[in-house]
Structures are given as structure tokens and as C-alpha cells.
UniProtKB/TrEMBL annotation:
Keywords: Cell outer membrane, Membrane, Receptor, Transmembrane, Transmembrane beta strand, Transport. Its main location: membrane. The keyword Transcription regulation does not apply. This is TonB-dependent siderophore receptor. GO terms for cellular component: cell outer membrane. It is a multi-pass membrane protein. Belongs to the TonB-dependent receptor family. InterPro entries: Beta-barrel_TonB_sf (IPR036942), TonB-dep_rcpt-like (IPR039426). It is found in: Cell outer membrane. The lineage of its organism: Bacteria, Pseudomonadati, Pseudomonadota, Gammaproteobacteria, Enterobacterales.
Length: 275
């Protein structure tokens, strides 16, 4: 059962797992991982769930593909295709559940995660420069995510159920500067980190109504609203060349963008046979 969706119970449960992988060939990155989960009652109508994870995979050796490179000349004559990039990740998530009435519950959840890479030298067309070589094995991009949500789940004796939630998620993509066009595309041009921030708000509500008309049926009606706002200080800094685009400045464009989606949905499930 997925621990993210598994309901908390009236008894204490916990687990701790660890994993290690050491490849036969030392040029390949090794992996270490550990995670835990803990859930149980808090007294009265309250219970909780907590789980976390910590893992790290080393980057492959910078010369793992020596002898398999394409022939290149000039300043790129000694460049090699990169191996697998390493990754280090940690996350923790907690939930408190309040069963405030029979078949009615509120869930309050918060989570945090951070994921960073361990650079293995990958670039477009194996192009290279001093920053590419300098950053091998280092963290060149990192992703932070914070989530907060509240959920109401309800059911009644007539079989009607409802699920409603509000969620806020903030993601920060922080990465070293890279070229955005031409032969320098994808190559580091700075050791300074630049952030891309995304804020996401979602409101969701649905109700399921069972009824018997010719056959047993279950009708689900709902709506959802989603707003996304982004501030991108990295991807749209490239000056336009080769002509202008009506309505857009060639330089100094706004880093802000946003989108909103509103939807209504309906679904009906019919039981045509007994199995």
C-alpha cells in the first residue's frame, strides 16, 4: 500500500529501510538510500503519519565513456560524452488526521523536499569550457519544494461521499547560469545560481452519488480551480536575434508569467453485470 495514501489507524506502526548498491565497475556511481515511516493515534479523534527519505547516488566517472567519443577538433578535441549524473535527495512529509464526526475527517498535511544533482560533465554535443571541467562532481542545480494542504473527506448513510481539498505548493529551481542559444547552449557561463520560482494553488471539490436506475450507478460531479504563477530569472534572458517578434521586447523581458485553469467534470459508473 502506498504510504502516501494509506490511512492512519488505531495502532502504532513504523518501518525503516536502507539500501546500498555498489556497482562491479568503480567508474559507475554507487547508491545509498534510507527511508522511514511512522503512524499511529494521537489520542481522541486525532492520528498522524510521518515519513521521510534520504538518498545519494554518485556521478559516474568523467571518463567512463573514454574510447566511445566522436572525433572532434579544435578546442573540443579532448571532450568525452558524459556518464550518468549523480543525485542527492531528501524529503519529509507529515499529516495529522482529525475524525471530527462519524465518517467525516479533516487532514492537514505539510511536506518539504530538496533534490540536487552531482554533475557528471554532460553538455550539448560534448562542448566544454573551464566551468564544465571545474564543476564535475559538484551540485549545479537544486530543486526545493514545499507543500501544504487541507482535505475534507465525508460520507453519509445514504452512500453519498465527498472529497474536497485546498493545496499550496511552492517550487524553487535554483541552477548555475547556462548559455541559452548557439554553440554555448547548455554550457555553464557562471558559477552564480539563478532561481526560477513557481507557486501553485489548487482548489478541488467533488461529490459521488449512488443511485439505482435500471442498473446500479454512481454519479460523480465536481469542479477544480488551479492557479500557477512563475518568476523565471533564467530561461527568458536570451536577447532575440534574427528578427523581432511582435509584442515582445528583444531584451529586458518580464520574468513573470501565470496561468489559471477552471474545470467542471461529471462521471457516471454503471454496474452492467454482477461481477
Amino acid at each position: 500500500v502506498n504510504i502516501i495514501t494509506k490511512k492512519t489507524g488505531d495502532e502504532w506502526h513504523g518501518s525503516w529501510n536502507t539500501y546500498m548498491n555498489a556497482p562491479e565497475h568503480k567508474d559507475e556511481g554507487s547508491t545509498k538510500r534510507t527511508n522511514f515511516s511512522l503512524s499511529g493515534p494521537l489520542g481522541g479523534d486525532f492520528s498522524f503519519r510521518l515519513f521521510g527519505n534520504l538518498d545519494k547516488t554518485q556521478a559516474d566517472a568523467w571518463d567512463i565513456n573514454q574510447g566511445h567519443q566522436s572525433e572532434r577538433t579544435g578546442i573540443y578535441a579532448d571532450t568525452l560524452p558524459a556518464g550518468r549524473e549523480g543525485v542527492q535527495n531528501k524529503n519529509i512529509d507529515g499529516l495529522v488526521r482529525w475524525e471530527f464526526a462519524p465518517m467525516q475527517s479533516l487532514e492537514f498535511e505539510a511536506g518539504y523536499s530538496r533534490q540536487g544533482n552531482l554533475y557528471a560533465g554532460d553538455t550539448q554535443n560534448t562542448n566544454s569550457n573551464d566551468l564544465v571541467k571545474e564543476n564535475y562532481g559538484k551540485e549545479t542545480n537544486r530543486l526545493y519544494r514545499n507543500t501544504y494542504s487541507v482535505t475534507w473527506n465525508g460520507a453519509w448513510d445514504n452512500g453519498v461521499t465527498t472529497s474536497n481539498w485546498a493545496q499550496y505548493e511552492r517550487t524553487r529551481n535554483s541552477r548555475k547560469g547556462e548559455g541559452l542559444a548557439g554553440g554555448t547552449e547548455g554550457i555553464f557561463n557562471s558559477n552564480q545560481f539563478t532561481d526560477i520560482d513557481l507557486a501553485d494553488v489548487m482548489l478541488h471539490s467533488e461529490v459521488s452519488i449512488p443511485f439505482d436506475y435500471l442498473v446500479n450507478q454512481n454519479l460523480t460531479l465536481g469542479s477544480e480551480w488551479n492557479q500557477q504563477r512563475m518568476k523565471d530569472n533564467a530561461s527568458n534572458t536570451q536577447a532575440l536575434s534574427g528578427g523581432t517578434i511582435p509584442g515582445y521586447d528583444s531584451t529586458g523581458r518580464s520574468p513573470y508569467s501565470q496561468a489559471e485553469i477552471f474545470s467542471l467534470f461529471a462521471e457516471n459508473n454503471m454496474e452492467l453485470t454482477d461481477t
